[in-house]
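Thanks for the sequence, V.! I ran RimJ/RimL family protein N-acetyltransferase right away. Repeating your input here for the record:
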Amino acid sequence: MREIVYDNYYWQNDLIRLRAWREEDWEWDYYTNFDSVAGRLVDYMIELPPVISDSKKSSERIADFSSSNGRTFFAIETLEGVHVGRINILLDDDRNGTFGIGLKVAREYRGKGYGTSAVELLLKYAFMERRLNKYSISVLEGNEASIKMHKKLGCEQEGILKQNIYTNGRYYDEIYFGLTKDRYLESRLSK
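Predicted structure:
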């Protein structure tokens, strides 16, 4: 097989590259499912203990851009090919042009900008290629890394649903952020 030249590749930036999720990525999924703190912040709950067969089935279902409930899944890799995370775009409502993004970065790679870089690529794709108009996301109270990332991306806090999520023995606020295409374009021009 020939070497791939990524010089003009849309699906990368100066830090990461996105690729199709593969069936063999089940191991990444399985091992990252042991991070219960991250699982609570992402899924707003504690899952049952990880099962290898579940990770294999999940990876098989979403591999090669097979759609899963309107979501398209990507693996996040460094430019050196190290698998650091998973990201998906959820096309909520084509009619109204709204979408969401789901993100998970392995613990040892957090805080290095990989997640922010991956979300930036999907925002560019959604706004500039898919003609979508509004990115919406909810964040669990206390998920300071996600709050900081969304503010850095230009998202505005649009509301708080008080005591809306029950986990870890108490109710947490659910914080909503949004980014319109107009605001996205303004923030890109100011950089």
